[in-house]
Write a structure and sequence with these properties.
Layout lengths: L6 E10 L2 E11 L4 E5 L6 H9 L6 E6 L2 E2 L10 E4 L11 H11 L4 H14 L15 H13 L5 E5 L7 H18 L2 E6 L2 H7 L2 E6 L2 E6 L1 H6 L4 H6 L4 E10 L3 E6 L2 E6 L7 E6 L4 E2 L6 E13 L4 E7 L2 E7 L10 E6 L5 E3 L1
Parallel strand pairs: 3-8, 3-9, 6-7, 7-8
Antiparallel strand pairs: 1-2, 1-4, 4-5, 9-10, 11-12, 11-14, 12-13, 14-20, 15-19, 16-17, 16-19, 17-18
Helix pairs in contact: 2-3, 2-4, 3-4
C-alpha cells in the first residue's frame, strides 16, 4: 500500500495578465484522504490541479508535499501523477504496455514490471487483460486502465481531472463506487476535480468549493450540504430555497426572522436588526401539517415525478418554493397544500 502524502497549498495565486485565475488560495489536504475540488466553469479548479501537478507555475505562493517544497519542480520530479478526462492512453500499445510505460521510464523491467502490472490490473478489477488492445475496451475499462497506469508507479498523490466526464450516467455512478474503493485500498491521497455535485458528495472525504478563484466553502459532504456557509454554497451544492428576512429577536440559541412568509424562529445566531437569509432544502419542506413551522398555503404550479420523489413548484404569494415530496400520494398540479417545516432544517446565512 502506498502512503498518501500531505498536500499544502500556501497562499497561492495565479494570474494570466490582468485575469486572476486563483486568488490567495490556502488549503491543507490530509494524507490518504479523498478531496474533491468542486466549482462551476471558470472557478479556478483546473488551474489549481495544474499547479499541483507542476504543469503550470504559480504567480505567488508555495505548494508543499509533506514538508518538501515542490512549487517549481516539473511534473516528472513530483510524487504526483495525473489522470486526465480523455484517459491519454497510447492506442498503438496493449493494456500491459500502457500500464507499464511509467515503470519502464523508472527503469523497472523484467519480472518486477510484469508483477506490478498484474497486481495493478487486479486492483482496478481487470485481471488477465494485459495483451488486449486498449482500443477494444469500453469507456469504463479504459478509465480503469488509465487509473492503473497512474497508480502502478506508486505516486504519493493522484490528481484526477474530470476523470468520469466522458462516461454515461450509469457507468459514471459505477465508476464512482469503484474509484472510492480503489482509493481506500491503495491509500494514496486523491485530489479530484469535477463540476458534478453528486459525484463530489459520493466520493469525497472533503469537498472544496471554488468560486471566482477563491475558496467559497469546504468541509465534509454532509456539512456542506446540511450547513452551507454562504448563499452560493447553499445553491451550488444541490437545490435550496432561500428566504430573505430581518432578525427581530434573538436568544442564546435561536433567531426570530421577519420574512414574507411570516416570522420564523429557527436555531442560529445573528445580531438583532441584521439582514439574513434562511436556507432550506426542498426535501425538508412538507406538503402537510407534519412540521412544527407553518409557512402557509400554496398552490402547486408544476410537478415532476423524479422516481424517488415528486419535485413540486409551490407558489406562495409572490414567491415560489421548491418542495420534494414522497412519491405517494401523488400531488396534482393546481392543488392547494399547506407547507410546513421543522426549525432545525433551516440554516441562517448572514
Amino acid at each position: 500500500m502506498t502512503r498518501g502524502a500531505r498536500l499544502t497549498v500556501d497562499d497561492v495565486s495565479k494570474h494570466y495578465g490582468a485575469s486572476v485565475a486563483l486568488d490567495s488560495v490556502s488549503l491543507s489536504i490530509d494524507p490518504g484522504s479523498y478531496v474533491v475540488i468542486l466549482g462551476p466553469s471558470g472557478s479556478g479548479k483546473t488551474t489549481l490541479l495544474s499547479l499541483l501537478g507542476g504543469f503550470t507555475q504559480p504567480t505567488s505562493g508555495r505548494i508543499l508535499v509533506d514538508d518538501g517544497d515542490v512549487t517549481h519542480l516539473p511534473p516528472a520530479r513530483r510524487p504526483t501523477t495525473t489522470v486526465f478526462q480523455d484517459y491519454a492512453l497510447f492506442p498503438h500499445m496493449t493494456v500491459g504496455q500502457n500500464i507499464g510505460f511509467g515503470l519502464t521510464m523508472h527503469k523497472i523491467r523484467g519480472d518486477e514490471r510484469s508483477e506490478k502490472i498484474e497486481r495493478m490490473l487486479g486492483v482496478v478489477g481487470l485481471p488477465g487483460i494485459e495483451d488486449r488492445a486498449v482500443t477494444s475496451l469500453s469507456g469504463g475499462q479504459q478509465q480503469r486502465v488509465a487509473l492503473a497506469r497512474a497508480l502502478v508507479i506508486e505516486p504519493r498523490v493522484l490528481l484526477l481531472d474530470e476523470p468520469l466526464g466522458a462516461l454515461d450516467l450509469k457507468l459514471r455512478r459505477q465508476m464512482q463506487d469503484e474509484l472510492g474503493e480503489i482509493q481506500r485500498r491503495v491509500g494514496t491521497t486523491f485530489v479530484h476535480v469535477t463540476h458534478d455535485q453528486e459525484e463530489a458528495m459520493s466520493l469525497a472525504d472533503v469537498v472544496v468549493v471554488l468560486r471566482d478563484g477563491r475558496i467559497e466553502d469546504q468541509g465534509s459532504p454532509e456539512s456542506l450540504y446540511l450547513q452551507p456557509a454562504t448563499r452560493f454554497s447553499a445553491t451550488f451544492m444541490g437545490d435550496s430555497n432561500l428566504i430573505d428576512g430581518r432578525v427581530v429577536r434573538t436568544t442564546d440559541e435561536t433567531v426570530e426572522v421577519e420574512t414574507s412568509l411570516g416570522n420564523l424562529t429557527v436555531p442560529g445566531r445573528a445580531s438583532e436588526g441584521a439582514e439574513v437569509t434562511l436556507a432550506i432544502r426542498p426535501e425538508h419542506l412538507r406538503a402537510d401539517r407534519g412540521g412544527d413551522i407553518v409557512l402557509g398555503e400554496g398552490r402547486i404550479t408544476g410537478r415532476h415525478f423524479i422516481g424517488m420523489h415528486q419535485r413540486c413548484r409551490i407558489q406562495m404569494g409572490d414567491r415560489e418554493l421548491i418542495l420534494n415530496a414522497p412519491t405517494k400520494p401523488l400531488l396534482p398540479e393546481g392543488a392547494t397544500v399547506v407547507v410546513t417545516a421543522h426549525p432545525d432544517d433551516f440554516v441562517v446565512l448572514i
